[in-house]
Specification:
There is one protein chain. With about 170 residues, the protein is α/β, with parallel strands linked by helices. It has a single domain (about 25-165), classed as Glutaredoxin (3-Layer(aba) Sandwich). The chain is built from six helices and nine strands. The protein has helices at about 1-20, 40-50, 65-70, 75-85, 115-120, 150-160, and strands spanning about 35-40, 55-60, 85-95, 100, 105, 110, 115, 130-135, 140-145. It has a five-stranded mixed β-sheet with strand order 1-3-2-8-9. Strands 4-5 form a two-stranded antiparallel ribbon. A two-stranded antiparallel sheet has the order 6-7. A hairpin with a 4-residue loop joins strand 6 (about 110) and strand 7. Helix 4 (about 75-85) packs parallel to helix 6 (about 150-160). The longest helix has 17 residues, at about 1-20. The radius of gyration is 19 Å and the shape is globular.
Length: about 170
């Protein structure tokens, strides 16, 4: 009987230590040498002062291609170095239940869409994963890129916007 009570207490306290306040999904504690991921609100604060562009990786926990991007493209040294130098990189779980504040708006999880309003807004309701959003220094949308990207596909896009080549485009 005492063993059963002891086992129950250990189980209870073990579970209690795993619960608590939900953490902000920012992944700002990046691996050394990796992309310095941060939360959306942190990236906005930093970009307001240093005027870097913002790269947002919109993903879900269940997305296999998202995990493959993390394991391949986002581990590529050239992509990592370039991203850290020219962008504030954000990991945004589209299904995050966290409240996100941007300017005068509050974005919350919408159960009917199974997504956070900020992801819905950034992706214009086209919820495919992975998707990547590039914002300029004033947080205006520059581009949305849908689908898995190899380093060879992603790097020219990052270079294009970092070099402000989009400003010289004539149409």
């Amino acid at each position: 009987m005492a063993t059963r009570i002891f086992s129950t207490l250990i189980l209870f306290f073990g579970m209690a230590s795993c619960t608590g306040q939900p953490k902000e999904e920012n992944n700002s504690a990046a691996m050394p040498g990796g992309i310095q991921w941060m939360g959306f609100e942190e990236a906005v604060r930093k970009s307001e002062s240093d005027k870097k562009k913002v790269f947002i990786d919109v993903y879900t926990d269940w997305c296999g291609w998202c995990k493959r991007m993390d394991a391949t493209t986002f581990k590529n040294d050239t992509v990592t170095d370039f991203m850290n130098q020219y962008y504030h990189a954000v990991k945004l779980n589209a299904e995050s239940r966290d409240t996100i504040r941007f300017r005068d708006q509050v974005f919350v999880f919408r159960p009917e869409y199974k997504a956070n309003e900020i992801a819905l807004s950034l992706l214009n309701g086209k919820m495919g994963y992975p998707s990547f959003v590039v914002l300029d220094e004033n947080f205006s949308m520059l581009n949305v890129i849908a689908g898995y990207q190899t380093p060879e596909q992603l790097l020219p896009v990052l270079q294009y916007f970092a070099g402000n080549k989009h400003l010289n485009k004539t149409e």
